[in-house]
Amino acid sequence: MPFVLAADECIVVTTPEPTSITDAYSMMKHIINKEQKMPIYIVMNQVDTVKSGRKVFENLQQVVSRFLNVNIQMLGILPYDRLVSQAVIRQTPYVLLDNKADISRAMQKTAFNFITQSSSRIVETGTPRSFIHKLRHFLRKR
Fold this sequence. Notes:
The mean pLDDT is 88. It is globular, with a radius of gyration of 16 Å. The chain is of the alpha/beta class and 142 residues long. The protein has seven helices and three strands. It has a three-stranded parallel β-sheet with strand order 1-2-3.
């Protein structure tokens, strides 16, 4: 927990399975109890469809808002794809193995969201530039 609380923001990766959602909620509750203003982003992993992933996120968002009084942000929805297992076996990132695959395109979109959402939050809140902000700025230029 000290490592997480030392960060500027938190990305929680979960799957649509009830046990995973429960674990994600628990983690967010612990984080929020220690650091109320910690921005929390969600990545829905291994979803059957984008629509089902969005629905699970919306349900989680409602519960977090109601019981923890915090707004979480969707960072990305990653579909289940056998390419991930193939990439693990080949020890190659799946984005490099097949950059046109649905999972690769979803990961690229998630990375783009990560770069742009955080930058807009910094402009809105006036939060000082951190290492992560500088890293995002560098990645945008590439």
